[in-house]
Fold this protein.
Amino acid sequence: MLILARRFTVITLFMAVFAITFSAAVVHGGGGGGSQSHFGASYTCLNSTSPFCTNMR
């Protein structure tokens, strides 16, 4: 049982390191040109009078 717990700990630590590096890569590489993100929805504002678009000027 001790060996199983040790393996689970090692696998969990590897998963945590992967998750942290992956999230850092996504944050660093994110942000498209001209698109806006609002609660996970990515879209481009074509109509500036829309309530979902913000003025970028």
